[in-house]
Amino acid sequence: MTTTSLPTPRSDTVTAALWMTGAIASFSAMAIAGREVSLDLDTFEIMLYRSLIGIALVLTVSSLTGARRQIRAQRMGLHAVRNLSHFAGQNLWFYAVATVPLAQVFAVEFSSPLWVMLLSPLVLGERLTRARVLAGLAGFVGILIVARPSPATFDPNLLAAAGAAVGFAGSAVFTRKLTRTEGITSILFWLTTMQAAFGLVCAGIDGDIAVPDAGAWPLVCVIGAAGLMAHYCLTTALRLAPATVVMPIDFARLPVIALLGMALYSEPLEPAVFLGAAIIFSANYLNIRRERQL
Hints:
Layout lengths: L9 H28 L5 H23 L10 H24 L2 H8 L2 H12 L6 H18 L10 H21 L5 H21 L12 H24 L2 H8 L2 H13 L5 H23 L1
């Protein structure tokens, strides 16, 4: 007897697509707000205020929904490693969006799932197959096309975007390990709480923590709310439809942010960025299809 996976209902696919539009809007809003507020705050200060807003949101929502009792102090070492990885990645991401054309940042960020694939055998004990290795190599080629590492065209600030992708990958792998025993509310609570502590230490190490002025506070609030909303929308979409459906929608982030970068900051639309991003996306997409077949 053989079994076949049932197709995703059309209504669920449409609903997942709508949730993904929310994720795309949230990621784009966070990038724009992060660039604007970087004129007044450094990346550590941005992370400090973002995390404080995140704590308030997590506690408020969990109290209203009755999920607050899920918060518990278990596996704190794994929480710490996961949040250090995410904190490093997020700081590098905010630095990159402030110094590199937004389309290039997003294109390199799309390599994060490939790093997850390569890190999973080390952290989760998952098998590294030939298909995964080939997908990783193809994704690396895509990164080289976007970065163009030559003395004439290479922007060293793009290394921050690459580092952010690795940091996000580490965060994803350790989050996956945490979800085996911990609830999402507990993970989000310790995410925001630990990163607020990290941000306070790093922002205050020079004895000077800048306070946003009245005009910057709305942007800081956008960063805090959009960060949580983006991941909530993405997670909800993945619950409704397979990754092979959701990922092509997520790829729409690149042309959206490229158009916003052109409209707001006069950033050029470079064909090499789209070519490299297409290779990165194809490597991700084909690897997911292969995993589903297996």
